Amino acid sequence: MSLKHAYILIALALSSVVFAQDNTLTGTVSFVTSNNVYVKFDDTEVIELGKTLQFSGNDCLRVTDKSSTSVVCVIINNCEVGQGDSVSYTYVVEAADPSVPEPDDEVGPTGAVALIPADGDKKSLYQENIRGRVSIASLNTFSNIRNDNNIFRTRFSLDANHIGDSKFSVQSFLVYRNFNTSSNRYDGRTSIFNVYNLNVRYDAMPSLSVTAGRHINPKASSIGAIDGLQVEKYFGDFYVGAMGGFRPDFENYGFNSDLLQYGGYFGIETNTKDFYSESTVGAVEQTNAGATDRRFIFLQHMSTIASDLNLFGSAELDIFSTMGSNSRLTNLYMSARYRISRAVNVMISYDTRKQIIYYETFQTEIERLLDEDLARQGLRFRLNVRPAKMLWLGLSYSRRFQADSQNKSDNIYGYATLSQIPGIGGRFNVSYNMNSSNYLTSNIYAISYSREFFENKLSAQVYYRLADYTYDNSISDLNLNYYGTTLSYRISRTWILSVSGELSRFDQENNYRFYTSLTKRFYSKKKK
What we know:
The chain is mostly beta strands. The chain has two helices and 30 strands.
């Protein structure tokens, strides 16, 4: 190699260092289910499916689906994440060469950039991003003593943002369940269809959106679903919103035109490199057949400081009463999570809740409810430690209590996980959970082993649990043994088949449970 060629190679290597840089996106866990973790970002364009998100410096979540502002993940490495936790995504971008001048972009009145291709036609301000999932599942339980039960369930979820690069978006989450049992005495509902989310959003402009249908507003999450119309407008960092519609029915979660509700809110959002916050204050009136049922003020705040400290809080203050009583703080929740280092993080939360009184719905019980107006309180603490690269340790404690010492409970949970086991690979986990209340003490011991095969296409797990239940009354103590296994096979990029089996044994009773699910995911087609 000539000296000239060596200089060229060195220059190219240096340019790749100068013009490539690591960037980090910070997101917040917005919802956790038994199967998935949902994380909210300001924008997810650079996030790739199959990549991992970091929590406390560890790879903890694998991205399986995404929309324009959120991603759906599965937990890996037995990590524990909760709502409000801050996670990060690291990616590499090629910085622009300063020697090449940037083209002049046409900037619209709202600050959005309208890109102009060579043919002179402006590209749409919005880009289509469609993510969805359909699943069918069955849970079958057979017993040598009890009745056999079979549950069939299908789910459909869709997050279609800016369909056809338009201003229209659609969201839905629908669940159908069918239940049948060998018992002839069962008189409950056997067919249940629930609409948890079904709405259409129209972005009149980047700072103004209108949503119609059943929708849970993330800035007023404690209110729950609203069947109606919601409007939100940004003025720089400030925003205002209005909502009007109906509450879902108390009994079947269907549409009920008697339960009219309406309200409004305002807030401020701050988003910088080291600080993100969103604070909202609003008021809502809920009615029943035209009469005021409940009137309250709500507050919600979330913030992330330097990616290490995450704060969340919400409160509801009832300001309506037909009994002449003062205002009531019916809900207060506060949580804080702090990442001490890459290997240690802690979380603490406190909540106090009173039973919500709907003065029209509970007309015959108002005096009794107000007479028993005690706050049920809770305190939780969690510590996660990674003393070695392959070892995770965790401990949590939670306590529920109220002034009359009723409904109290203490719960202690601890786990240890060893990953990348030398020689055999996979993950080994042991855990212990103790719960004590006014009438019951339980001790649950669990051990499991899991690993992936065939380039992570097949995931397998086997486990054993021992559960001891000691009652303080005349009910006999229980000692149950659980043996189970789960197989999950990724048929293709969009198809996943999962099969689980479990045997539980107690004295002469044997119960067999089988859970089978088939999931299909679909995405927007890549545009050329």
